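Blackboard transcription, Thursday session:
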Amino acid sequence: MSINHLELPWLVGAPPDFRKACAALSPGDADVGARVQELASFRLTNTEAGALGRAIERLRSGGASLKPLQPFKLAILPGATFDMVAQSLPAAAARSGVLLDVVLAQMDQVEQQALDPQSQVCRSGADAVLLAVDHNWLALAAPAHSAEDAQARVAGALARLKNAMAALSAHCGAPSVVLSLAVPPLPLFGSYDRQLAFTPRRMIETFNVALPELCEATGAILFDAATLANMIGTAAWFDPRLHHLYKVPFSTQAIPLFCDAFGRLLGAIRGRSRKCLVLDLDNTCWGGVIGDDGVENIRIGQGNPEGEAFLAIQRYALELKARGIVLAVSSKNDDQVARQPFREHPDMLLKESDIAVFQANWQDKPSNLEAIAKALNFGLDALVFLDDNSAERAMVRRALPAVAVPELPEDPADYPATLAAAGYFEAVSFSDEDRTRADSYAANALRAEVLSRSRDLGDYLNALEMQIHFSRFDAMNRGRIGQLINKSNQFNLTTRRYSEAGIARFEQGDAAFTLQVRLRDRFSDFGMIGVAICCADSEAAEPTWLIDTWVMSCRVLGRKVEEAMLAAIAQTARRAGVAILKALYIPTSKNGMVSEHFDKLGFARVSETGEGERHYRLEIADYRAPALPIQNLAEECEKLSGALLNAN
Amino acid sequence: MDQSAILARITDVVRDELDDDALALTPATRASDVAGWDSLAHVRIVVGVEQAFKVRFATSDIARLKTVGDLVGLVQRGLA
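(Written on the board underneath:)
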């Protein structure tokens, strides 16, 4: 056994006065949203989660702003008694940065709710609908009569789900969330169950294999409950007693884990997953203290059990980097001493080039974490800090509650499983851009060197030899477009989120104009870094486009890409006969950096509401594209605007 | 553990679950006498009592529960 997932060992236990602290939250408190997230970050029993959930509901109905939590309305269609889960979910969601509003339908009313456009769920305005059904509801619990019968039953279960998903998509426009199924620990034969098609084990596993394909085809989101059940063991997952008594679908002791993992999924949908792993070095990445023991005496590498444990940590960090998680280092050491193992120790898997920001000095860790976030242009809530030293962990938690700091077990052999189980880097999509993202931070270091040799900014930008690529949305890039729209928080003018199904509708004509932007320079290819959606404003007197969505990756800030995007939009608009571009800035807790975006681009500010929403317009006839340091801009604008005319 | 100590601990659990620190229970109290003690709260209370005393009740015993006194008796047997 490594760690006990049921106990959420990466979280710190709640203080004894937790319920009082929840009751004390008041809608008028400053930063009450951040305070809620802090309370949610403890390890909570179902009772404690319920208390915090009630407090969140009270604050919400009291009209409190719970920023930076991101609102999400989840409708649940349960096949069994899901109330306890529903009560624990809002607290767990707040842990992942989500302000959750749950609409729980009556038990076993899936079709009645899904197929009726006037039902409670279809009219709820939900952002997603969870189909909380298990093997019992899907009629996969009892053995089939034959292999053919088993096949028909699995197909029937999938068809039943698909039917409900299609109706929900049509009636409430919301994607479904579906669950993979745990196999109850009730073998008929034993090992032979796996070889016989009609056993529940085989039927459920066949279902679980088909489920991701169904999700891929329909845009549904998969919550892998089966893997959670397997991690803790299905004997602990299922509780037949509570099922017989109250139709509770799985053990109440698994509810905190289920909710924590589900909260992370909601966080990932809302773009709140973490982006950077900050590693301590001594006794976290190798055994021993480099400053005392010297490079020849630290424990790292094969042939020494302790050294292999640290190797496993490095390997997991590198696997995370390969899927796009940025690595950084924060260590109390002299810089040159801390770098020595990276440079000289033959068994180190981590190399200096893997580390985007290397902070080795004698300042306190919170200051270093702030410096890392600043250097990467991330919020503190993008960071995870891994440190074996409990005093350092406590200090960072106290000073910077937005940074995730997992508790770690005594034995470094259990560090990778603990970090993995905490699920800080949950994702609901993955693209080629993700693979290269971590490396592009290394390329940034090279750019910094070019900058140091450049006389001024214009000189520097020209030296980067940037090449841009514009095109309209297409099915092939839908996944990455969805990521940018749903994960960008800072450079996002309206923070409107669209599902892949919604994006597909823009491709098919719901938008007057869609734009995806790619950029590369002499050091690296950034892939897709910008997206814009313009909708025709049918109420305007003159032909008008309204910029509904404009997001950009912060990796390309300060490179005049926004000016280039406007040049593309304006030239296309002009050729399409559009006279006016209207635009909108909707403030959030995260997008202050673009509050003047349209002012800087030369739009006229028309009005501003009390909430700080700013409305702009630009007369196309007055717009002149500026000279920009992007080598192929004119050709790309010409190609894009010409293609638009051909398409129409 | 005597019956009054068990009752006091059960009262703590119910207060936590129902978020009501003024709540008082006697052996004769029935769920229907207590505001908020509905069927859903009942599941949470039964599971909460099991966890508080580290005991496990049988399905049939839970199904037969009528009063807080019955619950005290179940805990006492579980601890024996």
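Lecturer's comment: Residues 599 and 605 of chain A are 7 Å apart (CA to CA).
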